[in-house]
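Exercise: predict the fold of this chain.
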Amino acid sequence: MILVTGGLGSIGSHTARALLDLGEPVVLTAHRSTRLPSFLADEPGDRVVVEHLDTTEGAAFLDLGTRHPITGIVHLAAAPHDAPDPVAYLRAECTALLNALDAARAWGVRRFAVASTIAAYLGVDDPPWREDAPLPGVAAHQIPVFKKSAELFSGLVAAHAGFEVVNLRIGTVWGPLGLPDSPFFALPRLLSAAVRGEDPDLAPPRPPAHAEDATDLCYVKDCGRAIALLMLADRLEHSVYNVSSGRLVPYAEVVAAINAAVPGAALTLPPGHSTGRPPEGHLDTTRLQRDTGFVPEYDVDRAVPDYVAWLQDHEA
């Protein structure tokens, strides 16, 4: 049985779906709502268990192992990305991670996966970005600062306790249950505005989008399946894996797919590149493909109609 913290979030719930599809029951933790999304709701209670948990509460975390036969942990729970106080953010994230690692050690799990980020590569030149690239000590935002530290924390504890660690450097994830208006990239705003018939206002503080801007997009269903494959693989050769589509997707391609999927959307973007945009790069997913057989199933042309259908069903 695999424990997924943050298991009712976008990545967590799709990781759960993929684990279930591969025959593995799950325990999902949630801090607020414990309502299952529709694509998990019909599963029997011996396959999906939902537990209310504040991951910063160590005793409550450890208690899960007295009630469920947990053999692996996927730690995806996260503090709010827009927490204004970096000290409070780092304290919450570090406490939750250490509690998850303590539980992994106490329960004797086989494998512990923790969410890292594509932003760990900030300052690395020469894409595609590979897992063995040295990571600069860049402190541009509190999220990649913590994620890079989490990789070290997890590796240290895993080596001491004897379980395997899998650091998941996840690309730019989008799809059902994700934020409809992300502060990090424009796609969710463009798509949700098209579905609602709204003006896709990208004025600051929203990120801009020009036709030739490109991002390494990872549809959440592919992301969840990749994580599940990494958790259940008989053998892994590495402790760090890039999880994404492995290619840059220009926003012109995104807008074309949205206009095809949403009649009357007629989205347009300014030509060229946005000014002041960080250097573009994408993740090399060779390790992931070689060790798990993962191949993305959702390119933009397939993913956009899928997400549009989800939004239309759940925001009507």
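Check your answer against the key: The radius of gyration is 19 Å.
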